[in-house]
Amino acid sequence: MKNYLGGKWGIVVVGLIIGILASLLQFWGNPGNMGICVACFERDIAGALGLHRAAVVQYMRPEIIGFVLGSFIAANMFKEFKARMGSAPIVRFVLGIFAMIGALIFLGCPWRALLRLAGGDWNAILGLIGLAFGIWIGTRFLQSGYSLGRNYKTYKSAGWIMPLTMLGFLAILLFDPQVAGADKGKLLFYSIEGPGSMHAPLLIALAIGLLVGFLAQRTRFCTMGAIRDLILFKDAHLFKGVAALVVAAFAANLALNQFHPGFTEQPVAHTMHLWNFAGMALAGLAFVLAGGCPGRQLFLAGEGDGDAAVFVWGMITGAALAHNFGLASSPAGATPYGMVAVIIGFIVCLFIGFTMREKIS
């Protein structure tokens, strides 16, 4: 089947769609400037499963489920589902942990950084500069031969594990919906205040997640890849999609009265600029070393990439560690333990980058 979104303008169209849908998700109930945030939503899933007990960030986010299943549907429809794994899984897991820690220092993934900017949160500027800096460091490793090795074709059923896991999460969510005012269902934990208590209607969030997952799989949409390709190859193809997302979200926010410019009093954000920069720099470096931003990792997992699935579980584990050990930031700012964790994260990522380089002949 022909990929009509694979052309020059397909990525722009998809970026526009994602930007509009993200703003609408905020309008329909998601937290401010958090219509879509892969890191935040995976953190909420970790909380819903009881992996951490931060009561304000616990909800089984349907958007994440939809991202994986939408990609799975697209990959199977277009015969691109390929079960593969085996490329340094433990390293990818560790990179996922530190990518999440960096994102939770900033309070958002690259998707949310863009949406925060489109909503008028100028703190996102520092985060995006940090993201670009971290990606730039990662590209230096790529140019010097960094590689986690190749993955290998495996049993098709192995590639189904992540989509089946998401189907299981959806079944639990439908079986165990939140009862008004209750913070615990039969199986899941639910926030009754804070960002975790704010969400769009389940079916709308799921439908948008499925659509975004489908479209992103067709276009290879990736925020990290956009900056990486611009630095390495001067290729702006993916970057056009990212720019379109910001423009569309900005326009939609204006129309919906969701644009509130400034540094202070921004939703789920802090003004410690150094740590906004450093947190996203760590996340950006980890994304390059792992081969994709958190959204792209979900889409890859949906099309059978077991290594991407390991990274996703690393991020979910990182969210649990961040909240169980006081590493995650809050609107009050970064914590002392979080600052130390960022430094440790840079040391670990640099160690991985320097020691996992193949000789370039």
UniProtKB/TrEMBL annotation:
Keywords linked to the UniProt accession: Membrane, Plasmid, Transmembrane, Transmembrane helix
Source domain of life: Bacteria
Keyword Transmembrane part of the UniProt annotation: yes
Transmembrane regions: 9-28, 59-78, 90-113, 125-142, 154-175, 195-216, 237-255, 275-294, 306-325, 337-356
Matches recorded under Pfam families: Sulf_transp
Protein name: Carbohydrate ABC transporter membrane protein 1, CUT1 family
